[in-house]
Write a structure and sequence with these properties.
- With 441 residues, this protein is α/β, with parallel strands linked by helices.
- It folds into three domains: 200 residues, NAD(P)-binding Rossmann-like Domain (Rossmann fold), CATH 3.40.50.720; 87 residues, N-(1-d-carboxylethyl)-l-norvaline Dehydrogenase, domain 2 (Orthogonal Bundle), CATH 1.10.1040; 137 residues, Rossmann fold.
- It is built from 18 helices and 14 strands.
- Strands 3-2-1-4-5-6 form a six-stranded parallel sheet, with helices on both faces. It has a six-stranded parallel sheet with strand order 11-10-9-12-13-14.
- Helix 4 packs across helix 5 and helix 9 crosses helix 12.
- It binds uridine-5'-diphosphate-glucuronic acid (UGA).
- The site of uridine-5'-diphosphate-glucuronic acid (UGA) has 19 residues, from helix 9.
- Keywords: NAD, Oxidoreductase.
- Pfam families: UDPG_MGDP_dh, UDPG_MGDP_dh_C, UDPG_MGDP_dh_N.
- It comes from Thiorhodococcus drewsii AZ1.
- One of its GO terms (biological process) is polysaccharide biosynthetic process.
Length: 441
């Protein structure tokens, strides 16, 4: 089938490449000529395991092309995926200007039936707005062309995006039109492995399902972070508590790891946007406020622990940081806890020596050259002459460090482990103080 994807960002590229991989003819459109040039010359603008190889093989097979030509995009696909950004507005609500601009552009050029598929995370009611824009634009052209708008939210996780798309837990399709539902069912048929993963529902429920899933996961994390602080207060070990509650299948083991807060492009933004949607309709979403507030506080917890350990005397000290991306296996630093920590340390007059396996370039892009930030080539070099080590992101390579080497490098033998990633007893055995999130000292 012929598919057009508007937006060659994270979701757009993964969607495009995976639909091409199963045999569709995919044209990806982006307004950024630099991005399209890069993709056309074999480069990839983001780091995602497996993406580069799949782009290469599908381009070579002629099933995947990139262009800035919106008109060509509209002519190409029966399916017109909208996968452009929905950045937060000042009040936290999702800014729909890019989504609606794509809808307008599709309506300006379409001359036969098209299905507009909302893949971006968009608030409830967006499909109605997209339909209205298409209708108005067609009317202004005096064109009478049939179209449908479908909500088909994406649930992929960064770092596992290809696998999540190829082997989805669910494919949510929101439409009121049975014919459109059948066309989407056909498009997604190759991704239904052992059983039918496609869940058909009305458009608004599909739109809300996306936010509900992310808000639920964020709630689990904030709940565990709250409990880890309570565990510290009462002298319990959050690890034992985690295992104890996770054994109940109604609770489950997934997404109950305490840490130094959730980040990324989805949870913080989506929780705020859902709060905002509710607010704008007169409903005060109290639980969501709390999820957000707990996360905000949790992102400051490493700094608070460091400050307490050094009796508030941080000026002139240097701290080694391991992990800058918001989670392992990505270079994405949007709303990363590392940023809150580094900025607090800098404000207190401390310096940072940091290592991340892939996010150095992104760190440079965000912070530029500055005298209080050194990025090192490997993990151990970051600790040379540092006052303490802080683990912010649990990359696999940090989990089993050479503790005696850390002891030798650090001026003050202390590890602040923001993800409970290393074995505290081994650290203690090597003569290091180990400060965790909610574990017994
Ligand atoms: C999240 C969802 O997990 C996806 O299902 C969803 O499709 C995606 O958002 C989206 O809306 O596009 P992602 O942001 O890539 O995916 O990252 P996650 O793996 O969910 O991690 C989010 C944050 O939660 C990270 O900072 C991670 O460190 C933190 N986290 C996760 C915890 O602190 N504890 C946990 O137990 C799990």
């Amino acid at each position: 089938m012929d598919v057009t994807i508007f937006g060659s960002g994270y979701v757009g590229l993964v969607t495009g490449v995976c639909l091409a991989e199963v045999g569709n003819n995919v044209l990806c459109i982006d307004i950024d000529p630099k991005k399209i040039d890069l993709l056309n010359s074999g480069g990839v603008p983001i780091y995602e395991p497996g993406l580069e190889e799949l782009i290469k093989s599908n381009r070579e097979a002629g099933r995947l092309t990139f262009s800035t030509d919106a008109e060509a995009g509209v002519k190409h696909g029966l399916f017109q995926f909208i996968a452009v950004g929905t950045p937060p507005d000042e009040d936290g609500s999702a800014d729909l200007q890019y989504v609606l601009a794509v809808a307008k552009s599709i309506a300006e050029h379409m001359d036969s039936y098209r299905i507009l598929v909302d893949k971006s995370t968009v608030p409830v009611g967006t499909a109605d707005k997209v339909s209205a824009v298409v209708r108005e634009t067609l009317a202004a052209r005096g064109a009478d062309v049939e179209f449908d708008v479908v909500s088909n939210p994406e649930f992929l996780k960064e770092g596992a995006a290809i696998d999540d798309f190829m082997r989805p837990d669910r494919i949510i399709v929101g439409t009121d039109n049975p014919r459109t539902a059948e066309l989407l069912r056909a498009l997604y048929a190759p991704f239904n492995r052992s059983h039918d993963r496609l869940m058909l529902m009305d458009i608004k429920s599909a739109e809300l399902t996306k936010y509900a899933a992310n808000a639920m996961l964020a709630t689990k994390i904030s709940f565990m972070n709250e409990l880890s602080n309570i565990a510290e207060t009462v002298g319990a070990d959050i690890e034992s508590v985690r295992v104890g509650i996770g054994s109940d299948p109604r609770i489950g083991y997934q997404f109950i790891y305490p840490g130094c807060g959730y980040g990324g492009s989805c949870f913080p933004k989506d929780v705020r946007a859902l709060e905002q949607t509710a607010q704008s309709l007169g409903y005060d979403a109290q639980l969501l406020h709390a999820v957000e507030a707990v996360n905000f506080r949790q992102k400051e917890i490493l700094f608070d622990k460091i400050k307490a350990h050094f009796d508030g005397d941080l000026a002139g000290r240097t701290f080694a940081i391991w992990g800058l991306s918001f989670k392992p296996n990505t270079d994405d630093m949007r709303e990363a806890s590392s940023r809150v920590l580094m900025e607090s340390l800098w404000k207190a007059g401390a310096k940072v020596r940091a290592f991340d396996p892939v996010a150095s370039e992104e760190t440079n892009r965000i912070y530029g050259e500055r005298p209080d930030l050194t990025l090192t080539e490997d993990a151990i070099s970051a600790t040379e002459g540092a006052d303490g080590l802080v683990i912010v992101t649990e990359w696999a390579q940090f989990r089993s460090p050479n503790f005696p080497a850390l002891k030798a490098n650090l001026k003050h033998p202390v590890i602040f482990d923001g993800r409970n990633a290393v074995d505290g007893l081994q650290a203690n055995a090597a003569g290091l103080t180990y400060v965790s999130i909610g574990r017994r000292p």
